[in-house]
Amino acid sequence: MAKNSLFTGTGVALITPFRKQETIDFSKLEELIDNVIKSSVDYIVALGTTSEAATMSESERTALLQFIIESVNGRLPILLGMGGNNTRAVTDTISQTNFDGISGILSVTPYYNKPQQRGLIQHFKNIADVSPVPIVLYNVPGRTSCNMTAETTLQLAEECPNIIAVKEASGNMAQVMEILRCKPAGFSVISGDDSLTYPMMTLGATGVISVIANACPKEMADMVHYALKGDFKKALPIHNRLLPLMNAIFEEGNPAGIKALLEIDGRITNQLRLPLSKISKTLYNKLRDLFTAFSNA
Questions:
Q1: Is the pLDDT of residue 4 over 70?
Q2: Helix 87-95 crosses helix 117-130 at what angle (to 10 degrees)?
Q3: Active site includes 183?
Q4: Percentage with pLDDT > 90 across the chain
Q5: Residues 194, 237: contact at Cβ < 8 Å?
Q6: Model confidence pLDDT, tens digit, residues 71-100
Q7: What is the CATH number of domain 3-229?
Q8: What is residue 251's predicted lDDT score, i.e. its pLDDT?
Q9: Does the pLDDT of residue 3 top 60, yes or no?
Q10: Which of 47, 50, 108, 202 could form a disulfide with 81 if both were Cys (CB 3.0 to 4.6 A apart)?
Q11: Which residue is catalytic, options 138, 198, 226, 284?
Q12: 138 is catalytic
């Protein structure tokens, strides 16, 4: 498989099921992994934002990653979340990591310290210099308070052969279109927003790293696969069917919404770690009604 096609299609940003005591529920995680794989998703994203990795100890993250690698068992590529706002710490971690079973790195723009664009370029070039696997950039200014401009993304795409894609979650369609218009051959743009996946793919994006696919993997995978074939007429009804759920799960934050939805579907216990908290009863009831309508459609 070519490096630039490793992360085409639907990637699932895996949640981490917790028991009521807040320990990791590995049995439920294995069930989720098996379900998304049998539903024809294309790759797994481990230790991303949706996994609540920021609330875990280093030993928990290590155990979780190893469990995911063993459960996937080579059936799909695994994209590992690995970023931070201390460049040296990120590169040191990469240098010390065993990448057996890992196909690539998803690296978020540095958060909190608000680097300038030239700082972002040097940050990701340093990561590219040490990474033994392909890198997917992750631009999500709503979480990081740092937007990576189209110009910066394109410069990194041109100058770093092992930076193969960007997960664009800025919500800025003008920026997305500029990257798609000017990107070099072999560089991919991946949707970071479930609800924008369909319009982004009509413009040339190659898929999505999806949250809703934890609960609705087959539908999301079908929609993306139709879009990849250029059959937007078949993809659109699936997008429209998913859209109310895709919007609702983010109303009170991620992964609070998707965990509530997975509990409604009987797949996990709706447990988060502070500082995250459960969604309101009003939203929970709304999700339940939407999921009932979705399931009966």
A1: no
A2: 10
A3: no
A4: 98
A5: no
A6: 999 999 999 999 999 999 999 999 999 999
A7: 3.20.20.70
A8: 98
A9: no
A10: 47
A11: 138
A12: yes
CA atoms within 13 A on the CB side of 16: 25
Structure tokens at 169: 């979650």
The Cα 94–Cα 100 span in angstroms is 13
Q: Hey, which bits of the chain come out as E strands? A: 9-13, 43-46, 78-81, 104-108, 135-139, 163-168, 188-191, 207-210
Domains of the chain: which residue ranges? Answer: 3-229
Q: What is the pTM of this model?
A: 0.96
Mean pLDDT (whole number) for 42-53: 97
Strands 9-13 and 163-168: unpaired
Summarize pLDDT for 141-185 with one digit per residue, the tens. Answer: 999 999 999 999 999 999 999 999 999 999 999 999 999 999 999
Q: Is the dihedral of CA 214, 216, 218, 224 positive or negative?
A: negative
Beta carbons of 147 and 139 less than 8 angstroms apart: yes
Length of the chain: 297
User: Is 90 exceeded by the pLDDT of residue 1?
Assistant: no
Task: Give dist(CA 122, CA 127) in Å, integer.
Answer: 9
What's the half-sphere exposure (Cβ side, CA atoms, 13 Å) at 206? 20
Residue located via tokens 């074939």: 229
Q: Which member of 28, 167, 183, 259 is catalytic?
A: 167
Predicted pLDDT of residue 110: 96
Contacts of residue 277, Cβ cutoff 8 Å, sequence gap at least 6: 256
